[in-house]
Amino acid sequence: MTRTSLKDTNCSWAQGAEAIGDKWTILILRDALRGVNTFSGFAKGIGVSKKVLSQRLDHLHSSGLLAKEPTEAGSSRMTYQLTDKGLALFPVMVALGQWADRWVYGDGNQPMIPVDRRTRQPLDEVVITSEGRGPLTSSDVTLLRNDEQVLARD
Q1: What is the pLDDT of residues 62-79, one digit of tens each?
Q2: What is the CATH number of the domain that holds 67?
Q3: Which class for 96: exposed (0-12), middle (13-18), buried (19 or more C-beta within 10 A)?
Q4: Does 154 reside within a domain?
Q5: What are the tens digits of pLDDT across the range 94-131?
Q6: Do residues 28 and 22 lie in contact, with contact meaning Cβ atoms separated by under 8 Å?
Q7: Whether 43 contacts 53, CB under 8 Å
């Protein structure tokens, strides 16, 4: 099935969806954030066909979310690392996981719990704040076009 590209859509959410792609890409990003960095590691953790995995890794590389380099000089095997752009998705991935834990699994039924590596304590819920206000809800926020008046922070 051919997917319709959103690359020419002037919308931040559409561009985010275009960069991330689909469910397999989310799982690749999840595993990359956990330190997986080889094709075989991704294949084992995700359970997707080699063809789909190869396509998604290429997409993440061309989108600038993953860097790839040969495991050793002259090798066709690659090692994948999240770029700064890919690492910037960390709060998005945590928020998505927290949403699924609450609304899909229900509190106390999470299959995995993200914890602080040092303290082993669960992460706080991802919240949206603004200039000392928060947490904000969708009713506290509006969307302005880029050409509309946006007040600068002091």
Answers
A1: 999 999 999 888 888 999
A2: 1.10.10.10
A3: middle
A4: no
A5: 999 999 999 999 988 999 999 999 999 999 999 999 88
A6: no
A7: yes
Q: How far is residue 2's CA from residue 97's CA, in Å, rounded to a whole number?
A: 28
DSSP structure string for the chain: -PPPP-TT---HHHHHHHHH-SHHHHHHHHHHHTT--BHHHHHHHH---HHHHHHHHHHHHHTTSEEEEESSTT-S-EEEEE-HHHHTTHHHHHHHHHHHIIIII-TT--S---B-TTT-PBPPPP---BTTB-S--GGG-----TTS--PPP-
Whole-angstrom distance, CA of residue 39 vs CA of residue 8: 30
Instruction: Clarify whether residues 101 and 114 are in a common domain.
Output: yes
Q: Decide if 85 contacts 71 (C-beta within 8 A).
A: no
